[in-house]
Amino acid sequence: MMTEGKLSANVAEVLAKCPLRGVDFADLRMVSRSGDNITFRDGQLHTACRLVDRGFFLRVCSNGQWACGSTNVVEKLPGLAAELREHAESLTAGNQKSGQKSVRGIPSENSNRPAGDELLRFQDGGGTRFPMKTKVEDLKALDSVFSGDTSIVNYSSSYMDILETRAYVDLFGTAYAYDKSASGLASSFTLSREGKTFSTFFMSGMSSSEELRGLRDELNENLQEARTFLKASDIVSGDYPVVLSPMAAGVFCHESFGHKSEADLMLGDPRMQEEWKIGMEIGSPILSIVDDPLFSDSLGYTPFDDEGTPGCRTHLIEKGILAGRLHSLETAWDLDEAPTGNARGVAYGFEPIVRMTTTYIIPGESSFEDLIRGIKLGVYVKTVKSGSGMSTFTMAPDRCFMIRDGKLAEPVMVSVVSGSVFETLGLIDGISDTLEIFKAPFAGCGKMEQYPLEVGMGGPSIRVSKMRVS
Length: 470
Fold this sequence. Notes:
Pfam families: PmbA_TldD_1st (PF01523), PmbA_TldD_3rd (PF19289). The chain is α+β, with helices and mostly antiparallel strands.
């Protein structure tokens, strides 16, 4: 049982009751999540549900061998600990490296790690504190923007809020707890006129459902802009100078470069380690990219990771030079670099692996008008449906506009924007002086079986002198 009191201390008491004598290391993570999910489809309430979930993830290391397990019943942890200890010891017995201690970055009593802290900011419930009935009423009122418009074939609006609390303790005294809260709206709709259709979306992050009431004008403006795409022509495929909005720049940064910065992807890959040596030039001299787990107004906020490492702002690219990468304790040990606090598990039942937090391009010195002013013929990517890639990236835009003679012009239909990551990083020749980080709690980042992990994305607007558009 867990009692009232300091959260990390309570979790430490649970770990202390586990039979772990003689192991090299053990840690225990608790993850608690709650929140509401409401959806209207074509004006009718489709879903109104509340999620409440709490569980524990226990790791035990004996002579360099890990054994891990999870449960959502606190009383089962001592039994789970005994099973994991026995399993780790059985692995050790058959391993030639039996007897080696504190290998692969595993903390020891002499590791001198920070004791930790309690950073609980949303004890009032954050965005989840309002009644379900109120949220349903507010979403229904906003969703009515779509009703009565004969050009709309179908539409849906979803509201979601979350409150997540994480606590971590280990055998050597590290103990922390923190929470985060976010709310968001996602509306999708399809327009049709004279045989042409256009499917698009509107998304907004917020602090609570109260802000739904102030989004009506913004949603109406979004709908009005969407109608113009019913008359849009397809792009003439070719290479264009391209300006990416903060949203599009965030997707590009995350998908084309961010995953390459996750150090576990290069373990056992000498070629990739050679291609991505710290200190090499990989981008434009005006380009700097960071991963910042301490960005508090972001879903990627991670002041301590799931291995007890304090989060720190990591410079990945600094003025075009590869400056760092993201690490867990193990990858830092393997590559002889410092841990960065980027070991994260998507939920309590998953082991921590190297993940991004809030990754973005550092703002520059140009205004948006400066970025488009010198472009005779180009493309502005305003919103994006998806993106993917490693050496070569592809981006599927939602809304794009032509740039003509230094000004935004007509909407244009674009299927794909693509290019070589190395080439494109070097072709960035303009960065705006503003920063926008998006925090709507929809979708997320996927890696292996762990999806969707909450991350922060966004950035300034950027200009790339040449990208393939089709």
